[in-house]
Design goal:
Elements lengths: L14 H17 L4 H12 L12 H14 L4 H14 L3 H29 L1
Helix pairs in contact: 1-2, 2-3, 3-4, 4-5
Length: 124
């Protein structure tokens, strides 16, 4: 699976590399559309697109749909929750939604930390 975690920090991805990553992710989405991480990757790639007019569908509505699709498939998907919080905080400012997704992220992350601590505690 293609993971685009740190790519948002990149200044620019070369067009050919971006197109290859986008095509690969699209192929995987056709095969396994029930994979939330692929929808998150698509949203991230779309946010990095320097030429959205060259690709259909594109735009903020499509990015939002990808993030929400990931959350529909897996409501506790941490990356999708994080992207949703940032999307509504920065891209399409909606303070209430940003806070909702940020709080959901914190709640899920705390549960994950608790579960990981239990594994450690059970090992001792």
């Amino acid at each position: 699976m293609i993971v685009i975690d740190d790519m948002a920090n990149e200044e620019q991805i070369p067009k050919q590399e971006w197109e290859k990553m986008f095509r690969e992710n699209a192929k995987r989405l056709e095969l396994v559309p029930e994979t939330p991480g692929l929808w998150v990757n698509k949203a991230r790639l779309m946010m990095l697109d320097d030429h959205p007019e060259d690709h259909e569908p594109s735009g903020l509505d499509e990015i939002e749909k990808c993030i929400l699709q990931a959350l529909e498939l897996e409501p506790e998907h941490l990356e999708a929750l994080e992207e949703a919080a940032h999307f509504y905080d920065v891209i399409i400012p909606d303070r209430a939604k940003a806070m909702l997704y940020a709080q959901r992220y914190i709640d899920v992350a705390e549960k994950v930390v608790h579960d990981m601590q239990a594994i450690i505690d059970d090992s001792n």
